[in-house]
Amino acid sequence: MKDDIRAKYFEDFTRFTCASDGFDDAEGIIFGIPYDKTVCFRPGARFGPEAMRKASWGLETYSPVLKKDLVDCKLCDLQDISLFGDTEAIFNDIAAVSGEIVKHGKKLIAFGGEHSITYPIIRGIKDVIGDIAVLQFDAHCDLRDEYLGDKFSHACVMRRCLETTDDVYQFGIRSGEREEWKFAKNISMQLMKKEDVDKIAEIGKPVYVTIDIDVLDPAFAPGVGTPEPCGFSTEELLSSLYNLQKIRDSIIGFDVVELSPVYDSGNITAMAAAKIVREMILMLFG
């Protein structure tokens, strides 16, 4: 009877909207990683997961573009991972959770936190399923070998990922030191086009997508730790992501990172992040 009352009269707003299924029944598993230890300009990304969840309740569950509805998806929100110990211990836990999710045949959906959390996610996934391709949407190269003496800084995350897989494709990049641009392999200042998706499809590997919300112009996403002018609109980014429908069966997961609600204006960055999550979920499961 208590469970009936809870289901009828109460809603858990601490989870992402419509993500109320249990782990075993769900197709997609959400978890937050409130980590921003290496943020080098404006801290606050640790509050990103909570802000995305709150913003999701202000969105309709239906996508008029994809003509699909979140209410038809089976989603489980595990909420935030506990962060204890040093960087190695934290990254090992993130990798372990990521591996467990994909080992059970689920799609992984992670809320950052700073961008460094993508590396242990990739490591954990690869330990279970083998080699993967990574698609990065970002304003910054993130290809430094170390930053301020830290090889696991968010400024180094794609360099670490490239030590895990050769197939990293970067889109929307418009900032980086000279050596990063020289080191880069598959880097574009433009957003992803259909021909890029065709190229990625030919690789024949599972695909992981990482979306740093600062790929958007600060006019559309002021709530980030490292804003970079001359970016893209939310509509332009979503149009680019819709191209991924062609390889949706190959996508094993995605993250949205670097939302820093402390600097947000009217929650517009959080709303953009939540809508991106909604559209990505509907592309994968709807």
Topology at a glance:
Layout: H1 2-9, E1 28-33, H2 48-56, E2 62-63, E3 68-69, E4 75-80, H3 87-103, E5 107-112, H4 118-129, E6 133-137, H5 157-162, E7 168-171, H6 178-183, E8 186-187, H7 194-203, E9 207-212, H8 234-242, E10 251-257, H9 268-285
Parallel strand pairs: 1-4, 1-5, 5-10, 6-7, 6-9, 7-8, 9-10
Antiparallel strand pairs: 2-3
Overview in brief:
By secondary structure, this protein is α/β, with parallel strands linked by helices.
Task: Provide a descriptive summary of the structure in words.
- The protein has 286 residues and is of the alpha/beta class.
- It has one domain: Arginase, Chain A (3-Layer(aba) Sandwich).
- It has nine helices and ten strands.
- The strands form two sheets. The protein has an eight-stranded parallel beta sheet with strand order 4-1-5-10-9-6-7-8, sandwiched between helices.
- α2 crosses α9, α3 packs across α4 and α8 runs parallel beside α9.
- The longest helix is centred in the last third of the chain and has 18 residues.
Number of domains: 1
Helix percentage: 25-40%
Q: What is the CATH homologous superfamily assignment?
A: Ureohydrolase domain
Count helical runs.
9
Structural class per helix/strand content? alpha/beta
% residues in beta strands: 15-25%
Radius of gyration: 18 Å
Global mean pLDDT: 96
CATH class: Alpha Beta
Task: Kindly state the number of beta strands.
Answer: 10
Give the end-to-end Cα distance, rounded to a whole number of Å.
32 Å
Sequence of strands across the biggest β-sheet = 4-1-5-10-9-6-7-8
CATH topology tier name: Arginase, Chain A
- The outline comes out as globular
Assign the CATH architecture.
3-Layer(aba) Sandwich
Low-confidence sequence ranges: none
Quick one: biggest sheet?
8 strands, parallel
Helix/strand order: HEHEEEHEHEHEHEHEHEH
